């Protein structure tokens, strides 16, 4: 080999090393393709060049980068020769070199060779792991012998490296796109979950699920329903399930109906879903064949699976030969999994609601049934006490007193339970009106005065003169004040002191009931306001009570837009404070009205 040749070879290798080391630095497919194209021109010194990749979706080769060629030229018939060369390189999997195409038997017959005076041509397939991705092509129109065998070797070597870089970028883009799709889907499901979890109403959960399924598959309509037990009508065995049936409850689409529709389990599509435990896609369904009675080009039936069992079904329909693809099916299946959880929660909630209603109905019934005999017991006790049934011995009087005390205890329990029942079931009515708090506090104080003086306690009322009317239900507020004052009375030893204060503060009136009684330990303070809680303290337990008063008080105050708080120190006493809104002054209303209008 002469020196010149060696130098040329060295220069080629250096150039190859140079461009190859640049490859793989980017994972952006467009960037990689441009880089490859530039490197090829640089390496071969070609006049023009292009790179084609096989597009699997379109099933043909596509130009992805070009130098000194425009797209039209490549697409046009004029470059038939280039296409022939590329196709041959791809077919044989080998590089092609023609140093003078005009005289090359393989190509000289081509019109374009003559027309465009193509002389020097090189082409190398882009191959990776036995697969051909496409090819790179370079040419020189004017000069023959521009490319030599060594140039082709260089191009083929580089093409092999370029193919790896292209494949990597392609895979990366695919993974990147798949990842982006997954992230998008996850954030969508997060939105769906949020909506589903916000609702505990079964029908709404079903509606939401169906709406999402339709929106994301572009279906024309659909339905959703749950499997139910069919109960026996045989009264001997009440509620005995004798089979199951699908009850479609929510429908969408042109022929959507609002009534539930019952579908037997031997319906062919339903049967297949149950049997195979997977989604079923049926084409060209007639009204009779359709699960929900809507004829469709395609009907998809997706099972809703709960704890391994099919508990419901989503159907989706398309018209006018619109397909539902595999991705759509997978999506609806994932949606169905979400819906299953929300449906379960909604059903549990329904069960709790109905258990609550049963409890509430039971309490109402018991309260009513107890009140009637108690009224009669109280009536007869009063008659006997008044001596209408003959004179009573001291012991008899004492016994009657015990009966009366216990009746009072029972009747306060019944009225507390009824109150809680009414509040919990939302049936407690509040007759909100402006009223003078001073009068209510004074009335309550009067009604408790005897009990307070029985324990030789001092009562102070400190109501601010400037206290404007409040806006609440006066009877309920009297009940709140009475409860708190009665606690102060019960849980303060004889000779103690009770102070009731009321003062305006901002838009509210504050009312506090302070005592210097037994106080509440820090541990007990955490449990205060919970139903049936009473401190273990002997001083507390020897007083009558059920531990329901404070929980009622809090609910009543809060239902009237107020708040309640307390401060207490064991052995020193407690202060309970609650707020209620002040009634809006007429003048203030006017100011507000005029400011809204301006
Ligand atoms: P009851 O008075 O029927 O027990 P409440 O719900 O009114 O029911 O009160 C619950 C418990 O809170 C009482 O049993 C007592 O332990 C404690 N408590 C309430 N008010 C006071 C108070 N003013 N001083 C000390 N303890 C109190």
Task: List the keywords.
Beta-Lactamase; binds adenosine-5'-diphosphate; 598 residues; alpha+beta; 4 domains; 18 strands
In short:
Helix content is 49%, strand content 23%. The protein has 598 residues and is of the alpha+beta class.
User: For the largest beta sheet, what order do the strands appear in spatially?
Assistant: 8-7-6-11-10-9
Distance between the termini: 100 Å
Report the uncertain regions. 589-598
| Structural class estimated from helices and strands | alpha+beta
Bound molecules: adenosine-5'-diphosphate
Number of strands: 18
Strand percentage, roughly? 15-25%
CATH topology annotation of the largest domain: Beta-Lactamase
Radius of gyration: 44 Å
Total individual domains = 4
Superfamily (CATH H level) name of the largest domain: GAF domain
Shape: elongated
